[in-house]
């Protein structure tokens, strides 16, 4: 596994040759996968992302308050600001997955002191989801393509033509990906009892209800009975992408 140093701590890089750098989603999933053996890596990733959590609005970098980093690159174009990837926030899944990793780290270690120290950052992530991520009509977590130079699609498959309908037409934005709704349900469900444990009972109760409502909404809107599967996504006009694939 490829690691790099962060304040004397190890965090995983994505992979050679083109992705020898830090990616929020990749690091979170890697850290979660090895929590049983290396919980220290999970904590390192959480601290790395906490330090780089967005504090303001910057459309060029797809940054909004509370959003979790997607990618961090050091290179000529990034350093000059010609491309947004020096610190880039254009992923829809890093923020809910950050909450998941924080909760799973606590479940693995029982370290309440760490959970308490991360809780303000977790609350900021929740605020980003509510204020910027959730579609006001569908109540799904959605993304829209940002300014030129950033990513058109902001899930795992981020090429411009990766989200489409069965007839080959490209899905219009904003887009709700099926797995992202699962990540959000996971985050809310894990955090609810921990929030209550820390004294935020109203928040815990609210998250429990919201997770339940989200699950019901997903089952109603994403399930495609004739395919016996979930749609890969729902596009900006409410049309499911009836493709037998995850993102």
UniProtKB/TrEMBL annotation:
Transmembrane segments: none
InterPro entries xref list: 6-hairpin_glycosidase_sf (IPR008928), 6hp_glycosidase-like_sf (IPR012341)
Residues in the signal sequence: none
UniProt organism field: mine drainage metagenome
Biological process terms in GO annotation: carbohydrate metabolic process
Protein name: Amylo-alpha-1,6-glucosidase
SUPFAM superfamilies (UniProt xref): Six-hairpin glycosidases
């Amino acid at each position: 596994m490829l690691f790099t140093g962060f304040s004397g701590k190890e965090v995983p890089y994505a992979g050679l040759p083109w992705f020898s750098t830090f990616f929020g989603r990749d690091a979170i999933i890697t850290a979660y996968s090895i929590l049983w053996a290396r919980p220290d890596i999970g904590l390192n990733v959480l601290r790395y992302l906490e330090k780089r959590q967005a504090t303001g609005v910057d459309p060029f970098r797809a940054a909004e308050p509370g959003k979790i980093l997607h990618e961090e690159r050091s290179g000529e174009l990034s350093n000059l600001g010609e491309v947004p990837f020096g610190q880039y926030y254009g992923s829809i899944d890093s923020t809910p997955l950050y909450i998941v990793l924080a909760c799973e780290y606590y479940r693995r270690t029982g370290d309440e002191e760490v959970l308490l120290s991360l809780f303000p950052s977790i609350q900021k992530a929740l605020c980003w989801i509510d204020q910027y991520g959730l579609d006001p009509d569908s109540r799904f977590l959605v993304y829209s393509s940002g300014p030129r130079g950033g990513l058109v699609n902001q899930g795992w498959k981020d090429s411009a033509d990766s989200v489409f309908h069965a007839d080959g037409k490209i899905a219009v934005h904003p887009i709700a990906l099926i797995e992202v709704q699962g990540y959000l349900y996971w985050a809310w469900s894990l955090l609810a009892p921990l929030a209550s444990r820390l004294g935020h009972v109203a928040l815990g109760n609210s998250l429990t209800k919201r997770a339940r409502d989200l699950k019901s909404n997903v089952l109603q809107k994403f399930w495609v009975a004739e395919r016996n599967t979930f749609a890969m996504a729902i596009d900006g006009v409410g049309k499911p992408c009836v493709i037998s694939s995850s993102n």
